[in-house]
């Protein structure tokens, strides 16, 4: 996980930035390595970050005020 993130970027609260893990399935392959699958965080889709809150607020405000006062 990089230390130099954009301060506006939010770390995913579901995985705390650790968005992908290797899960052992048991047993080993012919080379002697563990059989694993990679699982990604569902909320952040494996990125470890979420869009800045400002982006979400701007989008919500656009929806609310798009109908506007008429
Ligand atoms: Zn996540």
TrEMBL record:
It comes from the Bacteria. This is Uncharacterized protein. It comes from Streptomyces indicus. The lineage of its organism: Bacteria, Bacillati, Actinomycetota, Actinomycetes, Kitasatosporales.
